[in-house]
Amino acid sequence: MLDGATTHAVLPAMDMERATRFYTEKVGAQQRAAVEGATFFSVGDSEFSIYPTPNSNRGGHTQMGLRVPDCRAVAAELRSRGVEFEEYDFPGLKTVDGVADIGGGGSAAWFKDSEGNIIGVVQVPI
C-alpha cells in the first residue's frame, strides 16, 4: 500500500519569514513552493514543510532527522553558516563538539532551528 511513499516532515513556525531564511540561508535548503499556510523545501532527496502556528516550541525532541554520509563534515559546514549545535550528556549519549558517536561507526548531532524545533543530523553505517 505504501510502496513508493516518501517521508515528509512538517515543522511548526512562529515566524514563517524567519524560518524560511534560516532553512534557505543557514541550512541550504531549496524553497520549492509557498502556499497559504505552508512553505515547502527540499534537501537532498528529501522534502519538508513549515506551517505558521503560535505554538512552535513545544516539541522537546527531534522533530526531523537528516541522514547524511558524513555527520562531522555536515556539522562543520552548518557551523560555518551560523548553525549552533546542542550539547548533550545523557546515559549512553554524550556529544563532543556537538557530535555524538552512536555505535557501529555512526554519529549524530542536533541543532535547533530559528523556531526552536530540534533537527537531527545522523550518519548510520547501514
From TrEMBL:
UniProt-listed Pfam families: Glyoxalase
PROSITE patterns xrefs: VOC
Domain of life where this protein originates: Bacteria
Gene3D superfamilies noted in UniProt: 2,3-Dihydroxybiphenyl 1,2-Dioxygenase, domain 1
InterPro entries, per the entry: Glyas_Bleomycin-R_OHBP_Dase, Glyas_Fos-R_dOase_dom, VOC_core
Domain VOC: 5-124
UniProt name for this protein: Glyoxalase
High-level lineage: Bacteria, Bacillati, Candidatus Dormiibacterota, Candidatus Dormibacteria, Candidatus Aeolococcales
